[in-house]
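Course assignment 3, question 2. Fill in each field.
Student: A.L.
Task: Predict the tertiary structure for the chain below.
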Amino acid sequence: MTEELVITCIVCPMGCRIRVLKKDGEVIAVKGYSCPRGREYAVQEATRPLRVLMTVIPCINGDLPVVSVKTSKPIPRDKLLEVSRYLASVSVEAPVEIGDVIVENILGLGADIVATRPCKRVKN
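Answer field:
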C-alpha cells in the first residue's frame, strides 16, 4: 500500500511543501524540496519524527517557583508524553544555572534534560 505525506519543511525560511511517498513503511520517493537538507528533514519526519521537549520543573528554595528545561537534543516524538510524565516527578534545588544537567540520559534516549534559565537560591 502506498502512502503519501505532505510535509512543510522548517529547515529554512522557504517552507517547501515536500511530498513523501512511502510503500510498506519505506520511503520510495521525495518531491518538492529545494535543498538536500529539506529532503533529509522530510525523510526523517516521515520515518522517525524527532522533537525537542521544553517544559518547566519546580525549583525548591529558588527565587522562581519553576525553572525552564529542555532536552539537549531531539528525541522521538512518540516518547514526548512518557518523558513529560517522568519529569512531572522531578524537582531541582536552587541554585540552578543555564546549562546545568537536571536529568542525565532521560529514559535511556541519549538526551539530557538541561536548564535554560537560572534560578537563584533564596536565603532561608
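Instructor remarks: Residues 53 and 120 are 23 Å apart (CA to CA). The chain has two domains: 2-47, 54-115.
Grade: pending
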